[in-house]
Amino acid sequence: MRKKMRWATGTAGGAVAVGAAALLASQAVPASTADSVAAVKAGVTVRTDKGVVRGTAADGLRTFQGIPYATAARFAAPRPAPAWKGVRDATEPGKVCAQPPGYPIGKPSTDEDCLSVNVTAPAGERGRLPVIVWIHGGSMMFGMGDLYGPNRLAAGGAVVVSMNYRLGVTSFLTHPSLKESGSLALDDQRAALRWVRQNIGAFGGDPRNVTIMGQSGSGFSVCGHLASPASAGLFQRAIAQSAPCSTPGNASRTRAEAIADSETVIRELGCDTAADVASCLRRTDIDDLLEKYGSTREPRPVSGTPALPLPVDEALRTGRFNRVPVLVGVNHDEENGMILGQELATGKPMAAEAYEPAVREQFRAKADAVLKRYPLGPSAGRTLAKVRTDATWSAPVLDTARALSRWTPTRMYEFAEQDTPWYTGSPKPSFPAASQHMAELTYMFDLSLFEKLTDEQAALGDRMIGAWVRFAATGDPSGGGEAAWPRLSDRRGQAGWHVQSLTRGAWKRADFVNEHSYRFWSAAKH
Q: pLDDT tens-digit profile of 125-175?
């Protein structure tokens, strides 16, 4: 019998964690032939390869939620979902995949058979539209597809698909006896992409024009699919937001690293001495698995396998990846939210005297050079956020775009808007969050985590949605009355490192190299 989850909610990652919530599930609903015919006429049913689904229609959009794309036995690769009879209700999100309490971008759950997709499509006869497959973020530990309201993005002229996929311990626990576990998140996402190829035409999408899109942890998933021969042909373009994939270890890890990361968990579960380790792990209660794995890991898929032969950074550097047009981007102030989150957790701004020790702890032998380059400003927190943004995000994302551009058409952006929504219901921060991590997402998705957009902010969101949909349609985000957006070209040197600055003003080339001390951080790597 499944035990009740026994964690208490608290704060993590600088934001108040959500409490346990009711888990919504899709279910098969029988219907008469007359009901089915009426529903078809209303335009809210679609026949998939497994059966008919009934969704909802409103405001010029059709929405279908919780459609199973595969089944998920514990530590096993995804298998085809069974067919159903009658009309399956697709008006509620599917089960949230098992995850611990923690960030507000997730929900505590113990559900393991949780693989479902959501589809939002413009209503009416509009021909085959480009398809955007959104892979939710959350450090590959938290999250669910339905958190990100896709209506505005779909209304921009695309069929938008999101998914739930296995996370954390249920995806990444690795042991020689678990033959299929270690990268199940990518395997699940790949199964969802196969579902899209098979079914999306029935929803008005073009199965030959699919863009995968992810941010942060799911941006690393996008890079994983770029590097995976098993994902070849399942998508035609890729968008990786806030994902410095060319940094070694960011987007993948070796099998030895994955096994070492799992050893403590397996030992604490008491399965390390079992005659059959795999059977022991499969019998273990899901609550125990989640508790021992914890909430602070950031696991990654395993390289050195047929599905991911090379580490992702090596694949991108050497050109051995699926060469499709790529849009890569980063936010101007990525680390602001991390620092401000710590302030929310402690109830006070970072003290000035804490700045230097924080820099020395992170940068060690290079700390003197960093402190000289980034002297303490009026706000210790803001100064440290600037250091960490440049070192961890800005410079490495430009490295990633440069690596990709040597082999495939690549464009890069920097989201640099300064007047952005703050977290709903949170105290006012000690300095502006500006374009913090995740800030761009609320301009494209309806996200209750953030305050409602103002009219000016919504107008910028419309412009960004236009660019993203144009990229999904053609591989080029240019147009829509915006300034030209050239490709980034590493072969031309710094002159070719074009980064488009996205703000409510005119879009233009960012002074990215100078503003983020790119040369300094490039030299600091050696």
A: 566 999 999 999 999 999 999 999 999 999 999 999 999 999 999 999 999
Residue showing tokens 């700045």:
355
Residues 143 and 136 sit within 8 Å (Cβ to Cβ): yes
Active-site residue identified among 26, 216, 242, 517: 216
Contact 415, 332 (CB under 8 A): yes
Burial of 484 (0-12, 13-18, 19+ CB in 10 A): exposed
Distances (CA, A) of 3 to 102, 278, 286: 19, 21, 9
Tell whether pTM > 0.70: yes
Which one is catalytic: 112, 291, 334, 417?
Answer: 334
Q: What is the mean pLDDT of the chain?
A: 91
Q: What is the pLDDT of residues 202-253, one digit of tens each?
A: 999 999 999 999 999 999 999 999 999 999 999 999 999 999 999 999 999 9
Give the largest Cα separation in the chain, rounded: 76
pLDDT at position 525: 79
Please report, for residues 23, 304, 401, the alpha-carbon distance to residue 216 in angstroms, rounded to integers and kept in the order given.
25, 23, 15
The residues, any chain, with a CB within 8 Å of residue 314's CB and separated by 6 or more, are 320
**C-alpha closest to that of 246 among 501, 508, 490, 54:** 490
Burial class of residue 421 in the structure, from the number of CB atoms within 10 Å of its CB (0-12 exposed, 13-18 middle, 19+ buried):
middle
> Is-catalytic flag, 216?
yes
For residue 410, the cross-strand partners are 326
334 belongs to the catalytic site? yes
